[in-house]
Specification:
The complex is a heterotrimer of chains A (about 100), B (about 475) and C (about 475). Chain A has about 100 residues and is of the alpha+beta class. Chain A is about 35% helix and about 10% strand. In chain B, helix 2 runs antiparallel to helix 3, helix 7 packs across helix 9 and helix 9 packs antiparallel against helix 10. The chains are: A alpha+beta (about 100), B alpha+beta (about 475), C alpha/beta (about 475).
């Protein structure tokens, strides 16, 4: 089983853009370890020859014609925006 | 010790569909910010993608044109990363099973033709755009969801020239298929390059770097040249190449490390659950195959066989489908490919380049071009006249025979009219005439020039020459003063 | 006329024949919803003005001769189903102020048949939970015992029925989120075949598992709502293009010769004794109705939870990435750059369980772990699906408990994720396989808490499941779905 420690939890959190305070981290790491221990039972099964199931209905994707539909009114686009300027969404500067 | 470079290219080509890949918003370039968005491409909660049929068709077209295997089954995957121009926090792309794989195209190199492998072609959605402004960035999601084909080459190129040649060929194929406008400035044809170097003879690849943000053929050439040089210098001084992404700074002509962005890149690809697998049947592929237009390399071969014109001319004429179509229409009306091709090379292309426009954006028609040649054949104008009226035709669309009248360019082929002008010129240039008659043959051109000047270039050159020769042969040096 | 007792069909018929007004029915339920809100906390949003506008519009339509399948029926909607111009929060702080500019397809379909889009019901945050304790808007309480959880995640939609705050409602079911609360609240809840009902406008949790379905008091009500919301939707590429039966018209009590499978893996230690006893009684009832009972096996049952928590969380980790404070919803303030905005927004906007699942899903997909976790789970999913496929070669439907326990106390399992996850053990495999299943009331335990019985069917055999339920409902003389039923 993967070694579950605070470092791994922190790394996964970085990937997910999450953050935990130090005191939360212990509790979280412990719960995370218990969940992963639980899913270890899948190891009992030999599945090398089994095809994975990603989609339930065995059929193919439907497609649409290349036609233009009305876009959303700009007021509707920005209605829920936490911050905006001149029809743009505005965010704190991306640090490069 | 000599080195060689190993270059592989990833090209992103925006497709010329009317609507986006997963929703019905328009793909038009240059609209006001966020005006071409809907809940689907804005990544609002609960919305779902529906695939645009045309995108699959275009992908198959390119796959066939580049000798790829078209995979009967393929599926979409999510590429997960965070950036404000990516509203869902993932890009719908293809990963494990792309729609096309294992193809190749032939490119021209100094050593002749070379085969460059294509690893895969897959469909994906484009991201939006950011504008940086002080302490903020502004997000425009109009481009989000514009369909892209990503074309990944094998690391088969060894020089920057080969890389450019590959890109030009690929771009031309896209243009011929009519599925991408190839505009590098607007970003509809973008390129990332993977490059490494190794000692000649080595079979193992060196550590590669990825070059991003290169938006012209010239910059690609420069960026690769710089990067190859940089890597060789490091290795020769005993250093090691770091695998990283580097940005090309076109103002300085150098590449710069983007290490700050390198943190924890793990895209966590997994099959897109919102889209079922894509299935393409044999009949569909066959239909697309039959409808493919003639491709650049096929056209070049045919031009060679059919028109017997120089390789360089073929190169230029087949560069754009509009030009080659125009040329062929001209040939069908005036069966002299060599003369026509010459005129295209020296005159028409020059005019188009000056105007920075395509041939179809001008008022030039094959009929007009051919009429010019008929006027030349009938001695109604001379070549100079042809050159003079061409810009006017381009601008006004008027017929050449009307224009030569209007502009007074009708050639003087009347011998008696020319005779008096010739005599006049000789009388007024007695010093030169004497010199000529004492053996300075070169001055013949001077007299031609003088007559042309007097006739504003309208003298029929052949008649003039004959006439001038005849007159000069009849004058003896003693007669000059009494002419 | 006692509006409270009317079935959906009766409401529609009485309204269309002008015996009662749309307003009478809606106002009755509005009054109840408001009166009981403090006790149940079943609603997150109850937009009275919007609801009364709908009533007014429908009255006008009726003047013009409108007829629909659900004319004037108020239907409560789980708050992860988008409603145009009505706040849709997913019970999360991160969407606390989100107003969708579009309707989910199911909402469009309900409106088309004359339904009144009633309040938005409380739920576990992002449908992640089995007890309705993870809602940003506070827990929902079980009308049979106010100290107990109603189940989750569609707790509000279940409670709205059993507290008679709405005559029918919609929920969503990713691992049991309709059936388990239906069971714990003593009402009917159905998860249709994956692809039967459009997911367009359902805020995604586990996209390959999510499915919208109805809550109701009677089999017929359930069938009617199901037939309205079902059917192919070109906006959902996973919805299935096939005939959509009129389930309410196809109902039949005659189940003679019906082959019922009883899986041994569902009668294990840890299932409360009263539940086993009541299910046994129900099996006897089915025997008396002429059904044939077979013991069957679904051998990979026990792996379901592990598989589910790897796949559902993987999909969720990606589905929830879009809540980043850029385009809508909550955004953390006082941040120095974009990266901090992302982190603080998610840290402050998501609750603990949601974060835990995003973490688990991110882990399951991370390079180096993908094969051993996400991919492995997807392979075991194939085995679970095959279990059902071979079972349905032998039997028509499968009967089992919906939940191993009746409603537990608020706070009892909230600090133990594994115990909480195990309460879905009987419902989860149905989602992994994509087959339809229904939970119907099956008596009470010694504490007076409702017990639920689950009926599973083969792909697209909703009608068979409904008929099984209909036969049982008739045999037991109707369901007791609410402690307030006889008031």
């Amino acid at each position: 089983m993967a070694e579950i420690n605070k470092e791994l939890v922190k790394y996964i959190a970085t990937l997910a853009r999450l953050e935990f305070d130090e005191d939360e981290l212990d509790d979280f790491t412990e719960k995370f370890r218990r969940i992963l221990e639980y899913v270890e039972q899948l190891k009992e099964l030999k599945v090398d020859e089994i095809e994975p199931t990603y989609h339930i209905n065995v059929n193919y994707t439907s497609m649409r014609e290349d036609e233009i539909n009305q876009s959303l009114e700009i007021s509707e686009v920005l209605k829920n925006a936490p911050d905006k300027k001149d029809n743009f969404f505005r965010v704190p500067r991306v640090v490069e | 010790m000599s080195f060689e470079a190993v270059i592989g290219l990833e090209v992103h080509a925006q497709l010329l569909t009317k609507s986006k890949i997963f929703c019905g918003c328009s793909t038009q370039f240059g609209s006001s910010p966020n005006s071409q968005t809907c809940p689907v491409c804005l990544g609002m909660p609960g919305v779902l993608p529906v695939l645009n049929k045309k995108v699959v068709e275009y992908a198959i077209m390119l796959g066939l044109a580049t000798n790829c295997t078209i995979n009967r089954n393929s599926y979409f995957a999510r590429k997960n990363y965070f950036y404000p121009d990516l509203p869902k926090g993932y890009q719908i792309s293809q990963y494990e099973l792309p729609i096309c794989s294992d193809g190749y195209i032939m490119i021209k190199t100094k050593e002749g033709e070379k085969r460059i492998g294509i690893t895969r072609i897959h469909m994906e959605e484009d991201a939006g755009k950011l504008i940086h402004e002080g302490a903020h960035s502004l997000v425009d999601l109009n481009r989000t969801g514009t369909p892209l084909l990503e074309i990944v080459s094998e690391p088969d190129m060894r020089t920057p020239e080969e890389a450019v040649s590959y890109l030009k060929e690929l771009r031309q194929i896209l243009l011929y298929l009519g599925i991408c406008d190839g505009n590098m400035e607007e970003g509809s044809f973008r390129c990332d390059a993977n490059v490494s170097v190794r000692r000649k003879g080595d079979t193992k690849f060196g550590t590669k770097t990825e070059l991003k943000n290169i938006n012209s053929f010239r910059f690609i050439q420069k960026a690769l040249e710089y990067e190859i040089e940089r890597q060789i210098d490091i290795i020769e001084s005993g250093g090691k190449i770091i695998q990283e992404t580097r940005l090309f700074d076109s103002s300085k002509g150098i590449t710069i490390s983007m290490r700050s962005k390198e943190e924890a890149h793990d895209y966590r690809y997994f099959p897109e659950p919102d889209l079922m697998p894509i299935f393409v049947d044999e009949v569909h592929i066959k239909k697309i195959k039959e409808s493919l237009p003639e491709l650049p390399y096929e056209k070049r071969q045919r031009f060679k066989d059919q028109y017997n014109i120089p390789e360089y001319d073929i190169e230029i004429l087949t560069n754009e489908r509009d030009i080659s179509d125009f040329f062929e229409k001209c040939v069908s009306l005036y069966n002299n490919p060599k003369t026509l091709s010459n005129f295209f090379m020296t005159e028409i292309m020059k005019e188009l380049n000056e105007r920075k426009c395509g041939i179809l954006e001008t008022k030039l028609t094959p009929g007009n071009v051919v009429e010019i040649f008929k006027l030349l054949d009938e001695d109604k104008i001379n070549y100079n006249g042809a050159k003079t009226i061409l810009p006017k035709i381009i601008e006004t669309g008027k017929s050449p025979s009307v224009l030569i009248e209007e502009m007074g360019l009708v050639q003087i082929s009347d011998t008696s009219a020319l005779e008096s002008i010739v005599m006049d010129v000789l009388r007024n240039n007695k010093k030169e005439l004497k010199e000529y008659l004492s053996g300075k043959d070169k001055l013949f051109a001077f007299f031609v020039g003088q007559v042309m000047k007097r006739t504003s270039g309208k003298a029929n050159p052949k008649i003039l020459q004959d006439l001038l020769k005849e007159k000069l042969s009849k004058i003896s040096i003693d007669e000059v003063d009494n002419l | 006329m006692d509006i409270k007792k009317l079935t959906l069909e009766e409401i529609r018929n009485l309204i269309e024949s002008r015996v009662i007004k749309v307003r009478d029915v809606t106002e009755f339920y509005l009054k109840r919803a408001k009166e009981l809100q403090e006790k149940t906390n079943a609603f997150i949003t109850l937009d009275e003005e919007n609801i009364l506008n709908q009533v007014e519009n429908l009255e006008k339509e009726l003047e013009r001769g409108f007829k629909g399948k659900l004319t004037g029926v108020p239907i409560a909607i789980k708050d992860n189903i988008c409603t145009k111009n009505i706040r849709t929060t997913c019970a999360s702080k991160i969407l606390y102020n989100f107003i969708p500019p579009y309707d989910a397809t199911v909402v469009e379909r309900l409106k088309k048949e004359g339904a009144i889009i009633f309040g938005k019901t409380n739920m576990d945050e992002f449908a992640m939970g089995s007890s309705n304790e993870t809602s940003y808007f506070g827990p929902v309480k079980n009308p049979w015992d106010w100290d107990r959880i109603p189940g989750g995640s569609s707790g509000g939609s279940a409670v709205a029925i059993s507290a008679i705050q709405a005559p029918a409602s919609l929920g969503s079911d990713t691992g049991g989120s309709i059936r388990q609360p239906a069971s714990l609240c003593g009402v009917i809840g159905m998860k249709p075949t994956y692809g039967r009902v459009s997911r367009y406008g359902l805020i995604a949790f586990g996209s390959s598992l999510d499915q919208i379905g109805p809550f109701a008091r009677t089999t017929k009500d359930c069938a009617l709502v199901l037939e309205v919301i079902s059917g192919y939707d070109p906006k959902d590429s996973t919805s299935i293009n096939r005939e959509n039966p009129e389930y309410s018209k196809g109902l039949s009590k005659d189940i003679r010769g019906l082959k019922i499978g009883v899986p041994k893996e569902y009668f294990i230690d840890g299932v409360e004794e009263d539940i086993v006893v009541n299910i046994q009684k129900a099996i006897d009832t089915f025997k008396n109705l002429g059904a044939e009972i077979y013991e069957i096996s679904l051998p990979h049952t026990k792996y379901g939870i592990a598989v589910y928590y790897l796949i559902a969380t993987a999909e969720a980790s990606s589905n929830l990435a879009r809540y980043d404070g850029v385009k809508y919803g909550y955004r953390a303030q006082n941040v120095k750059d974009l990266k901090q905005m992302y982190i603080k927004t998610k840290k402050e906007g998501f609750g603990e369980e949601v974060k835990r699942r995003i973490m688990l899903g991110t882990f399951s997909l991370a390079s180096g772990y993908y094969d051993a976790y996400y991919k492995k789970a997807s392979k075991v999913r194939t085995l679970i699906k095959q279990d059902f496929m071979s079972a349905f070669e032998k039997v028509d439907v499968i009967l089992c408990p919906t939940s191993p326990t009746t409603a537990f106390k608020i706070g009892e399992k909230s600090n133990d994720p594994i115990q909480m996850y195990l309460s879905d053990i009987f419902t989860i495999n149905v989602n992994l396989a994509g087959v339809p299943a229904m939970s119907i009331p099956c008596g009470f335990d010694r504490k007076g808490l409702p017990i639920g019985m689950q009926i599973m069917g083969n792909y697209f055999e909703e009608q068979k499941i409904l008929n099984t339920s209909y036969a049982y409902e008739s045999a037991v003389g109707g369901f007791k779905f609410s402690p307030f039923q006889e008031e």
